[in-house]
Amino acid sequence: MKLKCIAVDDESLARKLLEENIQQLPFLELVATCKNPFEAMEVLQREQVDLMFLDIQMPGMLGTKFLTSLLDKPMVIFVTAYSNYAVESYDLEVVDYLLKPVSMERFTKASLKAYENWQLRQRTPPIAEQTASTNPAHFFVNVEYSLVKIVVDDITHIEGMKDYVKIFLVNVKRPILTKSTLKGIEEKLPDGRFFRVHKSYIVNVERVESIRSHQLMIGSHEIPVSESNLEELMRLLNHQR
Length: 241
Known about the structure:
By secondary structure, the chain is α/β, with parallel strands linked by helices. The protein contains eight helices and 15 strands. It folds into two domains: about 5-125, Rossmann fold (3-Layer(aba) Sandwich); about 140-240, CATH 2.40.50.1020. About 35% of the residues lie in helices and about 30% in strands.
């Protein structure tokens, strides 16, 4: 199996070089190239990404800040022209730190290290990572070129609309609108507490106030329930009592 990669750099030439290097290594597969962290966030929300080649000095957000904002982090190799972030990168537990210009030999060595780490994770995923993925306290979404923190406990329900998702929160009048799929957001939610009641809706089971026929109420919001999901929803609601 190949490592699915993205390359994030604000310079077009740097992105092109990364793309060429990735294509030369048979165990890497390039999923996308991104010119800033906000584009990268959109890719991470819709695609499986195992490894990210990440620049640091970029307009709008440093690569180091972007990395710390991620809940489910892929492996990261920093590729930068600046050496002064090396200590910080060590604290972020990145795979490697490459200084531009990067030779193919050095690029290959770093990529092989990532591949070996990935193979080890496939055999024995760390318990801490399993816990974080199944019981996240929060996650970040991209909203108009900003990263917005979503606290899982504050979510009442989520509505999918083609390429966008509305996330409704407690004590927030307007929903958070982010470019994503409902499935992409669903994968970030803890099991048992959230349930997809309809092809376009996910609800926080603990926030359901009433249910009648094929409609449920959360606050002033009336949400449809599919016939095929009604029995499982009732089971979850009874379990919450």
